[in-house]
Design a protein that fits this description.
This protein has 165 residues and is an alpha+beta fold. It has one domain: Glutaredoxin (3-Layer(aba) Sandwich), CATH 3.40.30.10. Helices cover 42% and strands 18% of the residues. Strand 3 and strand 4 form a beta hairpin. The protein starts with a helix and ends in a 13-residue tail after the last helix. The strands form 2 sheets. The protein has a 4-stranded mixed β-sheet. The chain has a two-stranded antiparallel sheet with strand order 5-6.
């Protein structure tokens, strides 16, 4: 009996310790005017010589929280994003699905959440990335995430990168 109680206590401890605290996760704003915000970040990206990275999801999405933690807590990934992208977190929730805007981007919600859009400096859609290609176990694969950021950053579109000598 004591053994069962200890096992149960251990499981409960691990669950509490290692679970994502979604009560503190507030990356998405259901009340935001996403269309205006994307226009603003697109202008910022143009001025900075970067692309726009939009992460679509919601404060309800544990995988969205995991991705944000994964990137921001890894200094090399965080630096890679900041060097190549202006980021925006586009809300998708029961309060605001941003349906009209997502229709413009060819319904990326069909891939689940989070889903990522890469826009050029004009606001044109370059790429839609489902997150499940980037996942590993209950988290994300650093090599795959790094490749995604490198493959769709502005430098990857520079013709000088491909100049034959």
């Amino acid at each position: 009996m004591i053994k069962n109680i200890l096992v149960l206590a251990g499981i409960l401890f691990c669950t509490i310790t290692f679970s994502q605290d979604m009560t503190k996760f507030k990356l998405y704003n259901p009340e935001a005017n996403a269309k205006k915000d994307i226009e603003r970040v697109t202008k910022e990206a143009k001025d900075a010589g970067k692309h726009v990275l939009i992460q679509i999801g919601g404060n309800w999405c544990v995988w969205c929280a995991r991705f944000n933690d994964f990137v921001t807590k890894d200094s090399s990934l965080d630096s890679l994003v900041k060097a190549n992208y202006v980021t925006y977190h586009l809300n998708y929730s029961k309060e605001n699905k941003n349906s009209e805007l997502l229709a413009k981007y060819e319904f990326p919600q069909r891939f689940g959440f989070p889903v990522f859009l890469v826009l050029n400096e004009k606001g044109d859609l370059l790429h839609t990335q489902t997150s499940w290609y980037l996942e590993a176990g209950k988290g994300y694969d650093k090599e795959k995430v790094t490749a995604f950021f490198n493959d769709w950053g502005k430098k990857a579109f520079d013709p000088a990168q491909y100049k034959e000598e």
